[in-house]
């Protein structure tokens, strides 16, 4: 019986996604503490204020963009595909964050939202302080990019964030990367499904 229980627990752990970027350990139970999404306040495509609080308790996919970058249309199309794939799933939330906020004003954001039919209940296209954006990308997610005045291509990476704000996956924006992201979203969702405590039956 003990061997069976151990096998079940080990199997469940093996199926969990990796947690990235440990920063310390807890003082009470010594669990590993991981980097989480830094706080921010920005405007979305409807000129509405959006903060980190809106995404708390949801699985998030982050995308960093500049509207005039050569790879921007393909990346936005991938985000639109993700929105369509999880349209009815209230747990999934998408965030596109501008790397060039001096260029990407609310009119640009609105145009992007209309072009890709971004639903603000599901997908926020954001622009705000460039220093905050860089902090989120580099300190939070280890995603690096050129200086805002010289950037020509946005990082071709999508970042999967769990409900606790921890990085659980990074994916290149190619077709196979998006397919793997979709698979991992389903795996991550399983972590939040209540599990039966098998040990209680013994």
Plain-language structure description:
This protein has 202 residues and is an alpha/beta fold. The chain is built from 5 helices and 9 strands. The strands form 3 sheets. A 5-stranded mixed β-sheet has the order 7-6-5-8-9, sandwiched between helices. The N terminus is likely disordered.
How would you sum up the major sheet? 5 strands, mixed
Helices and strands, in order, run as HEEEEEHEHEHEEH
Total strand count, please?
A: 9
Strand content: 15-25%
Q: Name the shape in a single word.
A: globular
Rounded radius of gyration (Å)? 18 Å
Order of strands, main sheet, comes to: 7-6-5-8-9
Number of helices: 5
Present the secondary structure layout.
Layout: H1 2-14, E1 22-25, E2 32-34, E3 41-43, E4 49-51, E5 59-65, H2 72-85, E6 92-98, H3 106-115, E7 123-126, H4 130-141, E8 157-161, E9 167-172, H5 175-190
Parallel strand pairs: 5-6, 6-7
Antiparallel strand pairs: 1-2, 3-4, 5-8, 8-9
Kindly summarize this structure in a few lines.
With 202 residues, the protein is an alpha/beta fold.
Which tags fit this structure?
single chain; 202 residues; alpha/beta; five-stranded mixed β-sheet; two-stranded antiparallel sheet; 5 helices; 9 strands; 32% helix; 21% strand; disordered N terminus
